[in-house]
Amino acid sequence: MHRRRFLVLALGVMAAGGCGPGSRMPTAGRLTVVAPAARGQGWDRAARALAMVLTGDQMARTVEVSNYPGGLGAAALGAFPAARGPFMREGRLLLTGMPMVAGAEIANAASVAESTTPLARLVGDWAALVVPDGSHLRAFEDFAAALRRDPAGLTVGGRMEGGSDHVLYGMIGKCLGVDTRLLDYAGYSNGIEAAQALHEGRVAALLGSARSFVPEIAAGRLRPLVVSSAERIDGIDAPTLMELDIRLEYTDWCGVLGPRGMSAEDRDAAVALCDRVDASSRWRAVCVANGWNRVYLSGDDFRQWLVTETGRTREVLNELGLLSTFSTSCWGSCVRRPYM
């Protein structure tokens, strides 16, 4: 069977220039980091970690985090104005990721790359596919066989429809050669609701952050079938998709955007600031503590990657039927049959 290769990450590192020994790096005045999530949810933790590093390493004098949850990042994107003054005096940064990219496509709005100034991709979070310990799906091969027999026969749960988990499910389905339009996905507002749906039998399997599943895997309540990383993950006894000849590596990435209309000088200053964050030992320690993978890419390289990734995401969303039917979806509230 022919399988197409999906490469979701193009890893790269761009070092800041002009930072020789003894050079004095500028300090930003007041910065605002806009998080497209409620406090304590999604990438809000990354926003607050970023603020802590910016002030702790004296890259900025003050940093405020503003939360705009809702609509796959649409609320945050809509509240992010065009550039108005010098970035280093009073700049604004917007955290972004796959959900915001998908949300803009679903809404038929300008793409994230077009409506902002892409600055850098910071970190990623690997995904895992899990089932309850008593599930009849003993391995990923069982899951794949069930999908090939009947693509609509299994309901897979995850975070919000159109978000990272849903897009990953579409990519897996396509790699398996099934009709992705028939895939049944139930989206929930957060991982807690999704996990509850799994334990109550409303979904057969769950896609989500691999690290978030570790406690229940260790307790024997969940069985991991596969992970989306390039290599196996400590604490999760499951193969990678690549090991199973599914040519797919996928992370729920988090990046930083600047306002649209930034001057070349402001853009360069903002990218240099992101470079300094990625090089910070404080930031790297935060990434390790939170289980985030550093997937740094900045400047023009990040912009080009984002344009390419947007096109790939648009293709998957279209094949899932979300570009024309998303407004009528039930957002996880539909009544579904239980799974044994």
TrEMBL record:
It comes from the Bacteria. InterPro entries: BUG, Bug_dom1. Belongs to the UPF0065 (bug) family. This is Putative tricarboxylic transport membrane protein. It comes from Streptosporangium album.
